[in-house]
Specification:
With 199 residues, the chain is an alpha+beta fold. The protein is built from seven helices and six strands.
Length: 199
């Protein structure tokens, strides 16, 4: 067995580049108003003193959004935090000091948001922020989730407006996309945008 090199430690790589996952998460890190979102959830979040200390609220919010953006179940999200360094960085987890939150903790957090009808509110706000910046979250998987620029039109071939499409202006450029869809009380990722010709 070959001895490990310093290249396996973060910061010592000679041949490396930012992956699409890392680039996407960096964009979302800057875009999401973390303090504002946490303030909405905080009144409903468990307080320390009754049993096991709760995991930090922002960390759970980050894990929850990560699971939704990359279409991961609770257990798959827990595994991904151990497998993918970009996910750990986004959730601010240092495995040298702590474990990643487990699947049950994420499940309980998701149920808390659903119980207080907060998940839909948060995802709608993320969708608005994306459209306001001229971007949208493409329907994809853990492999190909990405931000893409949306064409500047809401019209289809028949030159009529699609009622499901909404527009937003950034500078002098108009963008359009679909709002987030929610089914059965659970937040769903933004669906893949339908192809439209420019009007």
């Amino acid at each position: 067995m070959k001895q490990m090199t310093l290249a396996t430690a973060k910061g010592f790589e000679v041949h490396g580049r930012a992956t699409r996952k890392a680039e996407f998460l960096a964009r979302m890190e800057a875009l999401v108003p973390w303090a504002q979102f946490c303030a909405v959830i905080e009144p409903h979040y468990p307080k320390a003193g009754n049993g096991r200390p709760p995991v930090g609220l922002e960390r759970m919010l980050r894990m929850y959004l990560l699971a939704n953006w990359f279409n991961l179940g609770d257990e798959a999200c827990e595994d991904a935090l151990y497998d993918i360094a970009a996910f750990r960085d986004f959730c601010r987890i240092d495995l040298g000091r702590e474990r990643a939150p487990d699947a049950t903790t994420l499940l309980n957090f998701r149920h808390l948001l659903e119980r207080h009808q907060l998940g839909a509110v948060l995802f709608a706000k993320v969708g608005e922020l994306l459209l306001a910046s001229g971007m949208k979250l493409s329907g994809g998987t853990i492999v190909d989730a990405t931000l893409i620029a949306a064409p500047p039109s809401t019209k289809n071939r028949e030159q009529s407006r699609d009622p499901e499409m909404h527009q937003s202006k950034k500078g002098n450029q108009w963008y359009f996309g679909m709002k987030l869809q929610h089914r059965g009380g659970q937040s769903q990722r933004l669906g893949t945008q339908r192809q439209r010709d420019r009007g």
